Amino acid sequence: MTNNKELKRKRAPQQQKPKKAKKKSRLWVRLVKWFLMIVTFFFVCGIGLFAFYAKDAPAITQERLQAGGSTQIYDRNGTFVRSIGTQERDYVTNDNIPQTMKDAIVSIEDRRFYQQSLGIDPIRIVTSALGNIKSGSTTSGGSTITQQLVKLTAFSTSSDQRTLRRKAQEAWLAMQVEREYSKDQILEYYLNKVYMNYGNYGVGTGAKYYYGKELNQLSLPQIALMAAMPNAPTSYDPYVYPDNALRRRNLVLSEMLENQKITQDQYQQAVNTPITDGLVDQSSHQTQDSNNAITDAYIKEALTEAQRLNYNPYQDNLKITLNMDYDAQKRLYNLANNGTVSFNNSGSSKGLLQVGATVIDPNTGGIVAMIGGRNQDNVQFGYNRAVQQTRSTGSTIKPLLDYAPAIEYLNWSTAKYLDDSKYIYPGTNVQLYDWDMQYMGNISMRTALVQSRNVPAVKTLQEVGVSKASDFVKAMGINIDKNSGLSVGIGADISSLQLAAGYATFANGGTYYQPTYIQKVETADGNVETYNSTGVRVMKESTAYMITDMLKGVIQPGQFGSSAYISGLPQAGKTGTVQYSQEELAKYPSYASTPKDSWFSGYSKDYVMSVWTGYDNIGDGTIRGTESNSAQLLYRYMMQYLSRDASYSDWKQPSSVERVGTGLYVKGYAPKVTETPSTNRQSSSQNSSSSESSESSSSHSSSTASSSSSQSRTDNTNTNQNNTEVTSPQSREEDRTDNNNNRNDNQNNTGE
């Protein structure tokens, strides 16, 4: 008995082991089942989501696949401006596409093109994804040539549009295209649709443009370049970026060698061929017609803005609506080119005096019109002097960098006394001169600004501090180095566009709108995006109004900006001239009595315009005679046109500003006691002399003037902000000759 019990006890554990194994087996079965159910669930959901997205995919016809790419551009009123893309393509049919061309494009873009039959390549997608994860970037794409054809035909290539919905539709259409068309047809459509820069679409058009030959006449290295460019046609432009083009071309050749489409000898000979081999002279391309020349500078910048917004205007078949007013753009172009404004049209410098001008709507930031140069009819997307050129602005920077920060931060009034006397830049032996080589003593801020005195402007900047003033204008898109010397207060290197945007903040009461070219973009699949610049307050309303009130005086008859005067139109503005340095005068002594650059920036409540005139190269010539007023005249004629239907409304004094006598004060900083001064003082609101004051560099004299009017002054001192005067004692201008030969350039070549 005992033995039997012991046997049972020994057997008992052995009988329990199969139960545990069975439980483990069931657990794994359940886990596998759940896993399969989850996978099936997500697979079914994926299929459903794919079907849901795919049902809204745009239709693709053979006509659309064969059509050339183009972006249609309209102005803000819906007027068609131009189309980006060659309308008369050199379409190359399959039987005229060399096999070498097919081998090159397949090797670099989609080596498995002939092996896959779905239109998508799962292996390539996975390989690309793993490569991007490993590199930490998204430089490698998984799209097949068929998918790329679909993108160029029906979708935007914008990164913002790379959504799951778009990818599903793209894959669905690629499968349709793959099913309905042969590989040769797909290659034919693709090779005739790719963008080749300079408005050229298709490798056949590219062959004609770059080599002046038919596609089947190109050599191996030339074909390799044609296959290289569609990936980034601007970056691989052999004219502008030959080194980039060479590297990309050689990569194509390397891929062809690895894909066994060329021999080692062919490869070696091709990579040793200069990238310029066979290229026609770019100057031989006459791509501009008269209509395109009118809008060239504007369109160039608009296309750049489209790319910043992640669109590809050369490939996406977009409809772009601009902030441009085409009629205004045409008017600006004609004024600069048809002789209405006096630009030099005779002598050795005929036609070389240049211009860069920008017109902005101050209430939206929309760029209404722009011109980047004169006499550029045969140049496409050339040098834009309104944007790319940064020349010293002369005195047009004073309201922005000097006086506005003083009002904003120090609460100075327009009647604040400023000292116009001999001044040496701190830490140097360089003396700062005014434009007339004289000093006026104590004058009001209003007089200092209207009369464009250099010394008070620099002293004001010194009070504010360059660093603080730099931050002030940075909020308006103007970059001034905080380590700049004080001379930056009478001339900073910025563009016409930046200056116009800065003055726009005065025009609208202190709000900065980033200048924009594009109002709306519609993609090929019907998606519409609207772009509006969001305004940001960058200065007090009181600051903007007080600056505007002072700048009104600049444009009055008899003042520096009188050539910009328009009867009845409330407007404000500032002139600027820049003189040659001593080194430049040593080389060109005959330039001593002439300015190097001439500026004018002005505005009404509805429009702002900034104009630069000058020569690209110092040897081209110098501004002489009536040409010194060309910037003002261009402004005047353009503003007359723009304001023809305007209400001519004036700025209203805000509640944050108080007027005492002729002075404007920030509320809370006005003096409490005033008295009437002697009658030999002139009203600063009338800007001293009634005679015409010239800021040009030619010799001149000013008539002695006196005033019978009295002006209010204060005995009270605002100790908080050092506002000590209501108006300035204005020095009477005596007859004097401007000795330009002795004029110091003040380290910034600034005339006034």
UniProtKB/TrEMBL annotation:
Residues 1-21, 671-752 are annotated as: Disordered. InterPro entries: Beta-lactam/transpept-like (IPR012338), Glyco_trans_51 (IPR001264), Glycosyltr_51/Transpeptidase (IPR050396), Lysozyme-like_dom_sf (IPR023346), PBP_transglycosylase (IPR036950), PCN-bd_Tpept (IPR001460). Residues 356-635 form the Penicillin-binding protein transpeptidase domain. The chain crosses the membrane at residues 27-54. The keyword 4Fe-4S does not apply. Gene3D superfamilies: Biosynthetic peptidoglycan transglycosylase-like, DD-peptidase/beta-lactamase superfamily. Coiled coil: none annotated. It holds the Pfam family Transgly. The keyword Membrane applies. Keywords: Carboxypeptidase, Glycosyltransferase, Hydrolase, Membrane, Multifunctional enzyme, Protease, Transferase, Transmembrane, Transmembrane helix. Residues 78-256 form the Glycosyl transferase family domain. Residues 678-728, 739-752 have a biased composition (Low complexity). It catalyses: Preferential cleavage: (Ac)2-L-Lys-D-Ala-|-D-Ala. Also transpeptidation of peptidyl-alanyl moieties that are N-acyl substituents of D-alanine; [GlcNAc-(1->4)-Mur2Ac(oyl-L-Ala-gamma-D-Glu-L-Lys-D-Ala-D-Ala)](n)-di-trans,octa-cis-undecaprenyl diphosphate + beta-D-GlcNAc-(1->4)-Mur2Ac(oyl-L-Ala-gamma-D-Glu-L-Lys-D-Ala-D-Ala)-di-trans,octa-cis-undecaprenyl diphosphate = [GlcNAc-(1->4)-Mur2Ac(oyl-L-Ala-gamma-D-Glu-L-Lys-D-Ala-D-Ala)](n+1)-di-trans,octa-cis-undecaprenyl diphosphate + di-trans,octa-cis-undecaprenyl diphosphate + H(+). Residues 7-21 have a biased composition (Basic residues). PANTHER family: BINDING PROTEIN TRANSPEPTIDASE, PUTATIVE-RELATED, PENICILLIN-BINDING PROTEIN 1A. This is PBP1A family penicillin-binding protein.
